[in-house]
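Bug report

Summary: structure tokens for TonB C-terminal domain-containing protein differ between web form and batch submission.
Environment: batch mode, default settings.
Steps: 1) Submit the sequence below via batch. 2) Compare with the web form result.

Sequence submitted:
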Amino acid sequence: MKQLLFIIAIACFSATRVHAQTSDTILERTVRPVIVEAQFPGGVTAWRTYLAEKMNNSVALKNKAPKGVYRVLASFNVNKEGKVTDVKILADPGYGTGDDFKAVLLQSPKWSPATQDGKPVTYQQRQTLTYQVQ
């Protein structure tokens, strides 16, 4: 009886190890780092300038937001062609700020797409935009 329990215990341990090794191997094959990140034309400074010029600073005030700072967090993809897609507002304080930021992102000019192994790939990015009512 003790031998049977010992054999069952070893069999369970071996199956778990094989499964773990298989998962690690699969993970290593499918998750590779992006070599070159997507770039807005002109770099980070141009991206900040674009956001500042295109955002509607008065949208929160027009929607009767009280004095304060309103931060909108969005995620979006830059696809293989450099187009901004799949914009999702993750944190929206309201007063029209989330909708305004989404429109600004969707109107973005084409980016230089991210590359992996020298080939363009879709790249996900997060960005915060701050609106202020004084």
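Above is the batch result. After comparison, the two runs are identical; trailing whitespace caused the diff. The mean pLDDT is 80. Residues 61 and 101 are 15 Å apart (CA to CA).
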